[in-house]
Write a structure and sequence with these properties.
This protein is an alpha/beta fold. It has 2 domains: 276 residues, Rossmann fold, CATH 3.40.50.10540; 83 residues, formyl-coa transferase, domain 3 (2-Layer Sandwich), CATH 3.30.1540. Helices cover 38% and strands 16% of the residues. It is built from 17 helices and 13 strands. The strands form 4 sheets. A 6-stranded parallel β-sheet has the order 5-2-1-6-7-8, with helices on both faces. A 3-stranded antiparallel β-sheet has the order 9-10-11, with helices on one face. Strands 3-4 form a two-stranded antiparallel sheet. Strand 6, helix 4 and strand 7 form a beta-alpha-beta unit. Helix 1 packs across helix 6 and helix 6 packs across helix 7. It is elongated.
Length: 405
């Protein structure tokens, strides 16, 4: 079954996470992603470990778990595009590409003839996506951006953590990941525009913009009220009760999404009178009176073990769930059934395979495909140069001797 982006070629000048997340999504959807890496070193994240993939003898290889996270379905081509010969090869490949994705600092690629205004002269239909920390306009456009920094600047950390604790970043690089997804969405939209008009275009995606967009309901809570949201731990700013509760033997999540669920919850918990209390009948009242209601519910929840609440509340359709460790996540029958624990062949791995996180995209007529495990550094250099640019063995040997590839 063909993927929706089969036949599309992506010239991938990205590294670390935001850009590689974007191009991995495109690769999963069928695109031929050619990942350009520095000869000898490659993407910085190849060395971001431990952990590293173990070989047959149990020793660390050069492939980190971090690199594996965002580089599936790509072909690795080592190329020094700071050299004249490397720039020519890069431009020749761009001429044969549909999409270019890059995440260099503002002005970097222009020095090597690979800026948008330069490459659109050789490929007017090219969709060119630039990912930076702060975008290509505004007073901070020249500054480098990193996920942790932008989680702080973009407001996420100010609303994450306990009320009396320090601001916390999200446990994964949320700004990078969301930026990668926004970039992939934008590229697909630009490809549709090209299909209709015949014209390529330039896309400017930033970590800061993406992080501000991720503020969602909390951002609108501020814009609507003028009141700056504070950190409230695991509670919800707009729905009550919707949080973590301690039980007799652990912690669970209870997410009461409407007034009918609240009635059923109170009846099961043995406190039906709370659902009749005028202060708590509607969600608005529960939000305004959370400081009164939550201690009452917390005392009740502590009286029974987690299994009692999880099994009982599920039977009466009140949303609840465990707080799983990652080993429990990947062993969960639902996660397994949905193909989220993925195995792919890998030449260096101990058992010949590495475990990856599958794509969440499920489509009936154009499913994602898993064709290539995250590549070794330069694994496809000969293949790409020979097939796409007809560079023969002797020419490639000369380029290697010069350090161009």
């Amino acid at each position: 079954m063909p993927g929706p982006l089969d036949g599309l070629r992506v010239f991938d000048l990205t590294r670390v996470l935001a850009g590689p997340t974007c191009t991995q999504i495109l690769g999963d959807l069928g695109a031929d992603v050619i990942k350009i890496e520095r000869p000898g070193t490659g993407d910085d994240t190849r060395k971001w470990g431990p952990p590293f993939v173990k070989d047959a003898d149990g020793n660390d290889t050069s492939e980190s778990g971090y690199f594996l996270a965002a580089n599936r379905n790509k072909r690795s081509l080592t190329l020094d595009f700071t050299s004249e010969e490397g720039q020519k090869i890069a431009r020749d490949l761009v001429a044969k590409s549909d999409v270019l994705v890059e995440n260099f600092k503002l002005g970097t690629l222009e020095k090597y003839g690979l800026g948008y205004e330069q490459v659109k002269e050789i490929n007017p239909k090219l969709v060119y996506c630039s990912i930076t920390g702060f975008g290509h306009t505004g007073p901070d456009a020249h500054k480098p951006g990193y996920d942790f920094l932008v989680q702080g600047m973009g407001g996420i950390m100010s609303i994450t953590g306990e009320a009396d604790g320090e601001p916390l970043r999200v446990g994964v690089p949320l700004s990078d990941l969301m930026t990668g997804m926004w970039a992939a969405v934008s590229i697909c939209a630009a490809l549709r525009h090209r299909e209709v008009t015949g014209h390529g275009q330039y896309i400017d995606i930033s970590l800061l913009d993406s992080t501000v967009a991720t503020l969602a309901n909390q951002g609108l809570n501020y814009l609507t009220s003028g009141i700056v949201p504070e950190r409230i731990g695991n509670t919800h700013p707009n729905v009550v009760p919707y949080q973590v509760f301690a039980t007799a033997d652990g912690d669970i999540v209870v997410a009461v999404g409407n007034d009918q669920q609240f009635v059923r919850f109170c009846e099961f918990a043995g406190v039906p009178e709370l659902a009749e209390d005028e202060r708590f009948k509607g969600n608005e009242g529960r939000v305004r009176n959370r400081d009164i209601l939550i201690p009452m519910l917390a005392d009740v929840m502590k009286s029974k073990p987690s299994s009692y609440w999880l099994e009982g509340l599920e039977k009466i359709s009140v949303s609840c769930g465990p707080i799983n460790r990652l080993d429990e996540v990947f062993a969960h029958p639902q996660v397994q059934a949905r193909g989220m624990d993925l195995k792919m062949d890998h030449p260096l791995a101990k058992d010949g395979q590495v475990r990856l996180i599958g794509s969440p995209i499920k489509m009936s007529e154009s499913a994602v495909s898993y064709r290539n495990a995250p590549p070794l550094l330069g694994q496809h250099t000969d293949e790409v140069l020979a097939d796409l640019l007809s560079v023969d063995d002797s020419q490639r040997a000369q380029l290697r001797e010069k350090g161009v590839i």
